[in-house]
Amino acid sequence: MTTRPEKRPDRPHFSSGPCAKRPGWKTDVLRESLTGRSHRAAPAKARIQEVSERSRSILGIPQDWKLGLVPASDTGAVEMALWSMLGARGVDLLAWESFGAGWVGDVVNQLRLSDHRVLAAEYGELPDLASVDFSRDVVFAWNGTTSGVRVPDGDWIDDAREGLTICDATSAAFAMDLAWDKLDVVTWSWQKVLGGEAAHGMLALSPRAVARLESYTPPWPMPKIFRMTKAGKLNASLFEGSTINTPSMICVEDAIDGLRWAESVGGLSGLMARAETNLAAVTRWVERSSWTDFLATDATTRSCTSICLRIVDDWARGREDSEISNTIKAAAKRLDREGVAFDIDSYRDAPTGLRLWGGATVETADLEALLPWLDWAWAEAKSEAG
Q1: Disulfide-capable partner of 176 in 49, 67, 89, 172 (CB 3.0 to 4.6 Å)?
Q2: Assigned domain for 3 exists
Q3: Do residue 378 and residue 313 come from a single domain?
Q4: Are residues 252 and 181 in the same domain?
């Protein structure tokens, strides 16, 4: 029987969204929030625009891109792009986990675009990136939050692309080096790598994306929450501190705090280094483990944020999937009761296993303290399962 560990993580928050707050966070950081003020008042618009400008600076977003705050988290940002821009030409849809599959479902079943190709892969793998046709629009996630698989870089994207590349980057932005010259639409939310609060999304548009908005009108009705143009031109105010609906100024203040912290740890390079160090710590442990392995089969595509693990224990051979699933869930519940790890079950659509968030707001020392507890909880759960 594995010995019960003594050392505990100082912060047991390893959820993949909403994610851990930045180290040292306290509610005091919200005291300057412009609560009770109109979000259209000049000071409030300035705060919202500050989020965009700090984000632009940290991420290295080109100055000729438009960047704004939109409703409904990353989901809302992606939907705005899909509903507003697709249909002008055929589209290739890449899916290797549940969120990518969700965008496929929206395009096929809701927008009902007939000229679409789905390039899919099983959890743990990537589709054949060499087969993507860049004369078409391309929709993909930079990092598969529920599979722990990321694209290795942007080299597979054609410099001479004719279509738009629409990238869901919510679990990649601020932790991975996005190839802005290869992208046209990029979306993310504050609740991931920055550890911000949910319900707000960020939408970044290249000049090519703006040109599409101003030259193409989709044939379907456009909900107000998705409208980005007026009289055939981009509604520039949406990217200058105005918003389609009312944002939470408390969440805005929290996002600014997260961005200031990001700057204090070295900006993008510092954030990336923190996340990669977390992945390295888990990798060392996995290499010694007899019961778990990465879901991502290729080390070059393993996510440093959503670190997904599968069960490879000899104990599991010949057992029903339901028994293995119940056992790992029992292990996760035991960790929750012990107060050492919250919300680390694999995503509901993903293969049975665990998912550890390794983004920059997670301290490596906390991950290292957690790993022996995983061994202990799995051994205890196995023993009870028989």
Answers
A1: 172
A2: no
A3: yes
A4: yes
Q: Is the peptide bond before 18 cis (omega within 30 degrees of 0)?
A: yes
- The DSSP output letter for 315 is G
pLDDT in tens, 7-24: 999 999 999 999 999 999
CA gap 358, 14 in Å, rounded: 7
**Dist CA 55 CA 61 (whole Å):** 8
With contact defined as beta carbons under 8 Å apart, do 35 and 170 qualify?
no
Show the low-confidence residues of the chain (pLDDT under 70): 1
Q: Which of 231, 263, 295 is the last residue of a domain?
A: 263
For 320, counting Cβ atoms within 10 Å of its Cβ (0-12 exposed, 13-18 middle, 19+ buried), the class is exposed
**H or E element that contains 99:** helix 98-105
**Which residue, 263, 298, 323, sits at the end of a domain?**
263
The one-letter amino acid code at 231 reads A
**Cβ atoms 294, 309 nearer than 8 A:** yes
pLDDT tens readout for residues 288-319: 999 999 999 999 999 999 999 999 999 999 99
- Indicate if 232 and 273 belong to the same structural domain: no
The single-letter code of the amino acid at 370 is L
